[in-house]
Amino acid sequence: MPELSSRQFAQLPPLQAIRVFEAVARHLSFTKAAEELGMTQAAASYQIKLLEERIGAPLFLRRPRQIELTESGQRLAPAVSEAFALLSGAYSAARAGADGVLCVSTLLTFASNWLAQHLGSFQVAHPSLAVRVDTSNRVVDFAREDIDIAIRSGGGKWPGVETHMLFKADFTPVLSARLAASIGGVKEPADLLKLPILDPGDIWWQEWFALAGLPAKELASRPGTSMGAQAYEANAAMAGQGVAIVTKALFKNEIADGRLIQPFDLVGDDGHAYWLVYPTARRNVPKIRAFRDWILAEIACQ
């Protein structure tokens, strides 16, 4: 690892000024940065002034209602963000190693229908590492939240993070055998329109019916009830309340034991998938590496 000489240390700017610059560059607001750091706007502006004097060039363009990074600021901002991420990762690794607490942020359905069913094997392999699961649909800010690793659904292109695809977020209709029998069976896609559709405003329905060669304009006139998660809609489907559209990989057990039936092999794919995500700068933290290796191996065995 390269070492800094005393001369190089002397050339480093004050840490407080760098902290303020990182916050202002991220928010593009002196006010928001000052609130985050617990200081006045005047104090934040003073720290930026010190840094600009040290560098010998302006870092921000001050406009009446907004600020922008200058060319010098644009060059400095990503390096500063990476430096703070590296420092945070090194501190966490030194403090906890492969022990302590691993906080995983994930979607509710993935947590209940996949993670909860497999997590036991991870705990057996790593008994000294406690796992805390945070379920949320929001995108995690690793720099500001106490989250080590996340499982997201999307296209897989997020800046500053490592991504590993777990499986595709494809989609297909499911329902209970009892509900299908109530109309004499579901023999063709059009039969689904004779039944209650759970969350008819979900874009997946439009895409799936289009694949099936059916217009589904009448879905727009149905009550737009939404339960907010595939897990809830699948539970309603198992109770015979309607037809849900879900990612099959998350409901293998329910389909295998007959609690849900998949009436057609037709599966939609909008290019999204489930991804394991963590900050690039923390990729070698032992507890993150342990969880990454375990989940990728677990998925590969399915």
From TrEMBL:
Any Pfam family hit: HTH_1
NCBIfam families, per the entry: PRK11139.1 (NF008352)
Lineage: Bacteria, Pseudomonadati, Pseudomonadota, Alphaproteobacteria, Hyphomicrobiales
Sorted UniProt keywords: DNA-binding, Transcription, Transcription regulation
Database matches in Gene3D superfamilies: Periplasmic binding protein-like II (3.40.190.10), Winged helix-like DNA-binding domain superfamily/Winged helix DNA-binding domain (1.10.10.10)
Species of the source: Mesorhizobium tamadayense
Stated name of the protein: Transcriptional regulator GcvA
Domain of life: Bacteria
Family the entry assigns: Belongs to the LysR transcriptional regulatory family.
